[in-house]
């Protein structure tokens, strides 16, 4: 009976000791992080960069993701270097009580001391280099984001008004209306697609063209001759309000067509 009791006590003691060891390790890590937070520049940079990303998400300008590639790379570099700064700044924890060692020869002791000094010098350099790099990446990322917000491409809705289908060369022009943009740009890229209204009777796509004419003053060029599926670019001439264009179809008498797509992209 005594043997079983001793075994049970030793097992319980081992589990308790293991739990205490794990708790002690977690507590040491938490203490290290708490010590790093108020004193290490990398920690504050990391917090500010995360807050900056949250603000960027809230005020995202929109547009194709390809124009945010540089911003994304710079943000990643800023976060990584800030994280490296935090890790480098954590205090070194011992690995247990020092073990008794035999006296080392003088040369070996000098080499060990030299290696220790070299390691400390590298750590000091890292403590300065990583925060500086993180700050530079953050500033560059902010400038890249601001550049996209000011000059990047912005998709915009275009309303098509008028009677369709468009039958023959005497069709009444359609009106294309571009609402006043929240983020004005200098130019408008206009994409148009015209298809057959009744494909079963044969196609007239290759026989059809159209004239897109600017109604709003100041837009250049004043008019474009476009194919059935085409993209044209207008200089808005400083216009920041609502824009209007007319779409006039040119086709044969027996052709019935429909303008099914009108999309716009504002850009500089």
Keywords:
4 helices, five-stranded antiparallel beta sheet, 10 strands, 268 residues, alpha+beta
What does this structure look like?
This protein is α+β, with helices and mostly antiparallel strands. It is built from 4 helices and 10 strands. It has helices at 2-39, 41-58, 69-89, 106-151, and strands spanning 154-156, 159-161, 166-167, 174-178, 187-196, 209-214, 223-227, 229-235, 243-250, 256-267. Helix 2 packs antiparallel against helix 3 (69-89), helix 2 packs parallel to helix 4 (106-151) and helix 3 (69-89) packs antiparallel against helix 4 (106-151). The protein starts with a helix and ends with a strand.
Describe this structure in a few short sentences.
With 268 residues, this protein is of the alpha+beta class. The chain contains 4 helices and 10 strands.
Proportion in β-strands: 15-25%
Give the helices and strands as they follow along the chain. Answer: HHHHEEEEEEEEEE
Rg, Cα atoms, Å: 35 Å
Based on secondary structure, the structural category is: alpha+beta
Low-confidence stretches: 7-12, 33-39, 93-101
What percent of residues adopt helix (DSSP H or I)?
A: 40-55%
| Global shape | elongated
Distance between the termini: 89 Å
| DSSP summary, beta strand count | 10
The average pLDDT value, as a whole number, equals 79
- Please count the helical segments: 4
Largest sheet: 5 strands, antiparallel
Write the layout of secondary structure elements.
Elements: H1 2-39, H2 41-58, H3 69-89, H4 106-151, E1 154-156, E2 159-161, E3 166-167, E4 174-178, E5 187-196, E6 209-214, E7 223-227, E8 229-235, E9 243-250, E10 256-267
Antiparallel strand pairs: 1-10, 2-4, 3-10, 4-9, 5-8, 5-10, 6-7, 6-9
Helix pairs in contact: 2-3, 2-4, 3-4
